[in-house]
Amino acid sequence: MVVDPALARLRGTFGGDATPGPRAAAMSGMWDHDEAGIFVEALFAKHHNEIYAYLLRMLREPELAADLTQDAFIKAYRNYETLEKPENARAWLYQIAHRVALDEIRRRKIIRFFPWTGESRGSAPSAEHLVMDAHLSSDMQRALARIPERQRAALLLAELHDLTGVELAAALGVSHVAARALLTRARESLRQALAAERAAEAETEANRAGSQSPEGRR
Amino acid sequence: MSRMHRLRRRHATASAAGHAHARQLAADRLGSPLGEIDETWLDHHLAGCPACRSVAAGYEADRLALRAMRDHQPEAPRDLWARTAAALERESAAAGGARRRPVTGRSWRSGPLLGVASGVAVIALVIGVSALSGAFVRVPATGDVPGPSALPVAVASPVTPGPTPITVGAGSVGWVGTSPDGDLAYNVTPVSQVCPADRQPDCAPVADSKSKAVHMNVRPKSISQSPVRNQAVVVGTDAKGDDSVLVIALPTAEPTATPAPTVTPAATPNATPTAVSAPPTSAPTASAETTPTPTPTATAEPTPAVTPSPSPTATATPAPTLVRTLAIVSDVKVVGESAAFSPDGAWFAFTARPADDSAGPDIYVWHVGDDLARPVTTDHLSVFASWVGGLLVGSRPGAAGSTEVEARSFLLDPATGRESDLSSPAWRPVVDPAGDRAVTWVGTVRLGDDGLTSVPATGSLVLRGFNKDAGPEPTDSAETVVADGPISEFDVRWDETGSWLAVWIADPTDPGIGRLSLLHLDDATGTLDRPHGAPQDVTALPGFSIADKRLAWATPPGQGGEGSRVQIVAWTDDTVGAVESNPVEGVVVVH
Question: Closest Cα of chain B to A115: distance in Å?
Answer without folding.
Answer: 23
